């Protein structure tokens, strides 16, 4: 076989070159890129227990609300109307009134008196004399003591009743002159011995057997009128 002749298997061929093993490794896609990354486990610290905040007092709440409203009003630029305080204003309470002092007594006012009649004196005569000298009417409201020689209207005789009697009551009015004598009069209620009670209008002496105390009221400027009134 001649050496100068070219065989078909010895000539140049157009086949692409075979890749080298190193090139094959370079063009080969990375498989680990598509695999998920495995990170190491991280332990987180446990949360601290929550500490309860102190309860706010009503005053602090009101202050906080007031500050919040003031800040909101100032931020918004609005005019906040002032609330009218409730209740009475200061100094408007009822002030104590000064006491009423009467420096001048009215002549028509009643005056209370306690009159004491000495033993042996006529009680009715003493009251009439007192009214005449004072110029005031005497209204006898009550009496206490003992009397003798009592002459009352309605008795069996006009002679004084014998014995000593205790005064249970005495009422009547004695007016000073120029009032007529029939406008004055006294009535008594007496207690005799053994529980006997008698009384009537005094028409004679009424002698005090011991100290007799009278409870009376005096008046002045009494208007004397006769009834019935004429038209």
UniProtKB/TrEMBL annotation:
Residue intervals of the PPC domain: 107-231
Alphabetized UniProt keyword annotations: DNA-binding, Nucleus, Transcription, Transcription regulation
Positions with biased composition (Low complexity): 21-64
Subcellular location: Nucleus
One GO biological process term: vegetative to reproductive phase transition of meristem
Location of region: Disordered: 1-73
Record-linked Gene3D superfamilies: Hypothetical protein, similar to alpha- acetolactate decarboxylase, domain 2 (3.30.1330.80)
UniProt GO cellular component terms: nucleus
A GO term for molecular function: DNA-binding transcription factor activity
The UniProt record lists the keyword Methyltransferase: no
Described function: Transcription factor that specifically binds AT-rich DNA sequences related to the nuclear matrix attachment regions (MARs).
PANTHER family in the cross-refs: AT-HOOK MOTIF NUCLEAR-LOCALIZED PROTEIN, AT-HOOK MOTIF NUCLEAR-LOCALIZED PROTEIN 15
Annotated protein name in UniProt: AT-hook motif nuclear-localized protein
Organism encoding this protein: Triticum urartu (Red wild einkorn)
